[in-house]
Amino acid sequence: LRGSKSFTAALPGETERNGHGLGYKSVSVGHLEAPPLSPSRLSLGRASSTATSTAAPEQGRPRDYLVLAIFSCFCPVWPINIVGLVFSIMSRNSGQQGDTDGARRLGRMARLLSIVSIVLGTIIIVLYISLSVRGNPSC
Fold this sequence. Notes:
The protein is mainly α. The chain has a domain at about 65-95 and about 105-135. About 50% of the residues lie in helices and about 10% in strands. It contains five helices and three strands. The protein has helices at about 40, 50-55, 65-70, 80-95, 100-135, and strands at about 5-10, 15, 25-30. Strands 1-3-2 form a three-stranded antiparallel β-sheet, with no helix packed on it. Helix 3 packs parallel to helix 5 (about 100-135). It is rod-shaped, with a radius of gyration of 32 Å. It is found in: Membrane. This is TUSC5 protein. Keywords: Membrane, Transmembrane, Transmembrane helix. Its main location: membrane.
């Protein structure tokens, strides 16, 4: 059996009586009446610069803290800051794939590891400078 692409629908206008007092019109799929397009769909061009500049930034996109992770790579706590950088990149990839929960989770871990790396790196640098100044009395 071959299926037909036509159907019967209750549409206003030219209708036939089916014996039950209800009006129906037999139409094919290609001849359906489309609703008028909204004004926003009429133009396929770019929106004006004032409309795009006043729009709020996308709220649903989670942060990946990539800049913070890259900055933490300058601290001398290399295993921790490299792992933070990897988590940041994984967070960015998850966000681009649409996994917002995973991106938020990975972004928080990247932020935590980056902050720990910066704090520990600062402590190591301060201790190194203070011990080297104290150990060298000629300065």
